């Protein structure tokens, strides 16, 4: 039966060739056009045409938000307005605050973030307006609220009061301030700003794709960001950096690196923070994060963790020929900034939300349903047996 139906589909295709025709993981399939970012396989990343190497030390994160949402860098007046809009949108609706307080103390912060972004949709002040300008206002409000949400969750878990952001602080600085409850030193301010710039966008990565699929159905921005957060959480995507830190703790000394990595490879396990779907050489974000991690560890007299990571990097390259991705040294930067492991992915989400909303706006403009096909490889014409007769 199966063969007959396959023959109806295409005389030349067997079940095996149908299976082979699937592009597993959509590897190399262009599924959307974008002006927000370009991931160049031989090691470069551009945001709206600007190389991240030029942005990371010279632009502010707010400039990058403006750039990705508007495809141009802001004037001073435009930047001032964006900063003010972000600042005044940071507050959370009371029911969201209440729900964060009630969240299970043991659940992962990304679970709370995913739920509460969705919950925020209930309080959107202009829910029926899907115009581009309304969606840009909505995008700014969502971007503004992520750091507050994450910081509030962390402080609730510590039994500490919420910290009110300061208008004179930049947006990344306020994030650290609200989260840790202390003023950041200049090195820390620069680190969180660079971290957020480097994580802002990255082509059609899995979470951005998820956001665009949701937006392609005409659904709202909160739904699209909720899809993206759920996707980023996975260990093969943004969740990798939390596992990088776990690996660093598991390897008790630099002398154990070789044996640990070899046993992971022998067991065919993935080494977290390594490998990439697109880059065929070093991830261009890694060199910045490595430099930041080294400098911050040096200043804090904690070079041992940096040295261990560097040894992991060289060992994995020698044994497998693969490079660290964004999540490897980002884990060390987060750790040195005093962010607990289980909050790493939430910081990633707070930075990547800019790319998500920018892509969703593009998807709305493109107005196309994203709906690939699947190749059916199951059986045909099976006889239905009533439940009482089944063995
Ligand atoms: C990111 C990732 C999912 C990309 O997967 P992918 O595009 O399917 O990777 P590929 O299948 O093309 O990998 C090519 C080869 O490198 C190996 N490889 C890739 N990443 C690896 C890793 N982290 N550890 C060990 N081996 C790895 C693959 O097993 C494969 O080896 P093989 O040819 O001997 O079978 C994968 O590298 C991974 O799981 N990395 C760890 C998780 C992580 O850091 N995620 C964050 C991504 S930014």
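^ Assign residues to that structure.
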């Amino acid at each position: 039966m199966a063969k007959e139906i396959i023959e109806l589909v295409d005389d030349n295709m067997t079940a095996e060739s149908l299976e082979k025709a699937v592009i597993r993981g959509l590897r190399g399939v262009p599924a959307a056009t974008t002006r927000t970012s370009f991931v160049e396989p031989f090691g470069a990343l551009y945001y709206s045409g600007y190389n991240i190497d030029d942005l990371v030390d010279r632009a502010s994160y707010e400039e990058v938000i403006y750039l990705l949402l508007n495809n141009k860098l802001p004037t001073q007046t435009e930047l001032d307005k964006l900063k003010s809009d972000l600042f005044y949108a940071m507050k959370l609706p009371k029911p969201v605050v209440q729900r964060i307080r009630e969240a299970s103390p043991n659940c992962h912060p990304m679970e709370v973030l995913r739920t509460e972004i969705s919950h925020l949709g209930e309080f959107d002040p202009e829910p029926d307006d899907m115009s581009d300008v309304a969606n840009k206002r909505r995008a700014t409000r969502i971007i503004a609220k992520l750091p507050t949400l994450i910081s509030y969750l962390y402080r609730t878990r510590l039994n500490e009061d919420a910290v009110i952001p300061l208008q004179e602080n930049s947006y990344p600085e306020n994030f650290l301030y609200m989260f840790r409850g202390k003023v950041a030193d200049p090195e820390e301010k620069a680190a969180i700003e660079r971290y957020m710039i480097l994580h802002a966008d990255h082509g059609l990565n899995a979470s951005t794709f998820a956001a665009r699929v949701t937006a392609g159905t005409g659904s709202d921005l909160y739904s699209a960001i909720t899809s993206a957060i759920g996707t980023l959480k996975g260990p093969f995507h943004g969740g990798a950096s939390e596992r990088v830190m776990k690996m660093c703790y598991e390897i008790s000394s630099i002398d154990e690196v070789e044996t640990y990595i070899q046993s992971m490879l022998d067991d065919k396990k993935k080494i977290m923070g390594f490998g990439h779907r697109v880059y065929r050489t070093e991830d261009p974000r890694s060199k910045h994060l490595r430099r930041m991690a080294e400098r911050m560890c040096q200043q804090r007299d904690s070079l041992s963790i940096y040295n261990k990571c560097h040894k992991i990097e060289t060992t994995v390259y020698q044994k497998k020929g693969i490079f660290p991705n964004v999540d490897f040294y980002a884990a060390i930067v987060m750790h040195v900034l005093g962010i607990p492991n289980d909050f790493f992915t939430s910081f990633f989400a707070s930075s990547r939300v800019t790319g998500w909303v920018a892509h969703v706006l593009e998807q709305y403009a493109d107005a196309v349903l994203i709906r690939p096909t699947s190749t059916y490889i199951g059986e045909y014409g099976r006889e239905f047996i009533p439940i009482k007769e089944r063995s």
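The longest strand covers residues 37-40.
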